[in-house]
Amino acid sequence: MDRREFFFRRRAGGVKKRAKGFTLVEVVFALAILAVTLSGLLLTYISMFVLTDMQRDHALASNSLLAKLEEIRAMDFDNIPAAAGPFNLTDYGFTDGQLSRGRVDVVTSFSGYPATLTRVRLVASYATRLNRTVGEDRNFNGILDSGEDVNNNSRLDSSAEVVTLIAR
Questions:
Q1: CA 34 to mean position of chain CA atoms
Q2: Chain centre distance of CA 115
Q3: 109-140 in b/e burial notation, b at 16+ Cβ within 10 A?
Q4: Shortest CA distance to 61 belongs to which of 129, 156, 126?
Q5: Higher-confidence residue: 13 or 39?
């Protein structure tokens, strides 16, 4: 066999052409990338629904506090201290099954302000539809109980809070 014959045989039959298509490793790798991408998108989609529910509940609580504040503003100035205490947020838009409670704190005399001003603070504590409690009032009774004052300021706090001054 001379050199030309060896070269010809090697070219003709020795080297096989690769079949067209994907190997199993390439398919598995592509599916893994697709699975990671889709799970990330699904997680983002679910988080978006959770945040939407939380925002809806917070907006409802804020609107409830503002409605209660308008009732207090409509009262005679001397009767405003009588509005202090717990109130039901279900009267202002929360559903009966949803745990919620509001509180009104009224301060009629405080340093630096004349006696013709009254400070009114409204705070709402509620359970979201995902059973997350917003606010320090864990048992939803509108009263600061033992163990509820997380930041030790001797009052109920919440992210849903309205504070205003009302003049005589």
A1: 30
A2: 39
A3: eeeeeeeebbbbbbbbbbbbeeeeebbbbeeb
A4: 126
A5: 39
* Mean pLDDT score of the chain: 87
The pTM of the full predicted model, rounded to 2 decimals, is: 0.73
Asked if 155 and 143 count as a contact pair (C-beta separation under 8 A), the reply is no
Query: What DSSP line would sit under 5-40, residue for residue?
Result: HHHHHIIIIISPPPPSS--HHHHHHHHHHHHHHHHH
CB atoms within 10 A of CB 103: 24
Among the ranges given (7-16, 123-132, 146-155), the one the predictor scored with the smallest mean pLDDT: 7-16
Task: Count the helix, strand and coil residues of the chain and give each as a percent rounded to the nearest 5.
Answer: 45, 20, 35
